[in-house]
Amino acid sequence: MTIEELNTKYKIAGQLEFIAGNGGLPMIRVNNAKAAALISLHAGQVLSYQPAGEPEDVLFLSEKAYYQDGKAIKGGAPICWPWFGADPEGKGRPGHGFVRNRAWNVVATEAMNNGDVKVTLGLVDTPDTRAIWPQSFSLLQEIVIGATLNLSLITRNTGKETFSITQAFHTYFKVGDIARTKVLGLEGCEYIDKAGGGNEQKRQSDAVTIESEVDRIYLDVGNTLTIDDSALNRRIQITSQGSKTAVVWNPWEKISKEMADLEDTDYQRLVCVETTNAANDVVEVAPGSECRLIASYRVIRN
C-alpha cells in the first residue's frame, strides 16, 4: 500500500500517521499525550520511543543505519526470528533470521481507551520465506505506545508439524555514558560468554558493568532487569514474559569501527539488553498453537 492508502485506512487523527521515512521507507509516526514513537514497516521495528516529558529517547538509533530492502536497521528494537544468532543448521542463512530485513504488513491501529496507541504488524509465510525456512506460520507484533512501551511477538504455527524457534527483541538502549552504566537483575546468573568468538560459561557476581566488548547470553533469568544510566539520571526498567534468557551486548571500540553502520564512538552511547529465547531456551510450537514473547520498557527517574 502507498503512504496515502495507509493513512486513509489506518491513520488516527492527532495521534498516528504514516510518513515516508529515511530511504523512502514507510514509517508510522505516533505522537500522543503519553509518548512519541517512530516505527518502520521495513523490519517491523520500533526505531524511537520517548515518553512525554522525557528529554531523551529511550532507544539508540545509529546515525549511519541502513534504510533499504534486504538490510537490517541498526538500532531501535529489531526482531530476531525464527532463530537468534547464527544459522542453527549451518546453511549460511542470515544471522538472526529473516524478518528484520523485510517489509511487514499493517494489520490494525487502535486508539485505546486509556490513551495508549496500539499498532499491530504482521507477516505470513510466502514461497520466499519457505525457501529460507520451510514452515507455515503467522507472525504478529503488537506495539503499544503509552507511558510504557509494550512489545508482544506472537508466533502461530499454521502448518501440520511442530517447529522450533529461538527469537529476541534485540533492543538498543540509549545511555549517556557506557562507563557510568550498569545492568541490574542478573546477579548470580550463569552466562555464556560469546565475546571474541568464545563459548565459555561463567557466573555474574554483581551488577553488569561494561569496560570492553560484552556479548553474553544469560541463563534462567528473572522477568525484571534494569539499566541504571547515571549519566542521564534515569533507570530503564525491562519486564518480560515468555523468556528464560537475556542477552547483554556492547560492541566496544574495535567492532564499532569495523561496522559500517555505526559511528566509531557509538559503543559509548548504547547498550543492548535483549529479551530472548536463546541458547537452551528453545520454543517448540505445535500445529495450531502459538507462543508469545513480551517485553515492556519504562523510564524511572533517579
TrEMBL record:
The keyword Isomerase applies. One of its GO terms (biological process) is carbohydrate metabolic process. SUPFAM superfamilies: Galactose mutarotase-like. It comes from the Bacteria. Keywords: Isomerase. Its EC number is 5.1.3.15. One of its GO terms (molecular function) is glucose-6-phosphate 1-epimerase activity. The active site is at 170, 274. InterPro entries: Aldose_1/G6P_1-epimerase (IPR008183), G6P_1-epimerase (IPR025532), Gal_mutarotase_sf_dom (IPR011013), GH-type_carb-bd (IPR014718). It catalyses: alpha-D-glucose 6-phosphate = beta-D-glucose 6-phosphate. Belongs to the glucose-6-phosphate 1-epimerase family. This is Putative glucose-6-phosphate 1-epimerase. It comes from Nitrosomonas ureae.
